[in-house]
Amino acid sequence: MNKYIVEFIGTFFLALVIGLTVIEPNIGNFAPLAIGCTLMIMVYAGGSISGGHYNPAVTLGVWLRGKCEAKDALIYIVIQVIAGIIAAFTALYLKGNPTLTPLTLDIPKALLNEFLFTFALVYVVLNTATSPKTAGNSYFGLAIGFTVVVGAFAGGAISGGAYNPAIAISIATMGLTSISNIWIYLITNLAGGAVAALVYKLIHPDKTNS
Question: What is the pTM assigned to this prediction?
Answer without folding.
Answer: 0.95
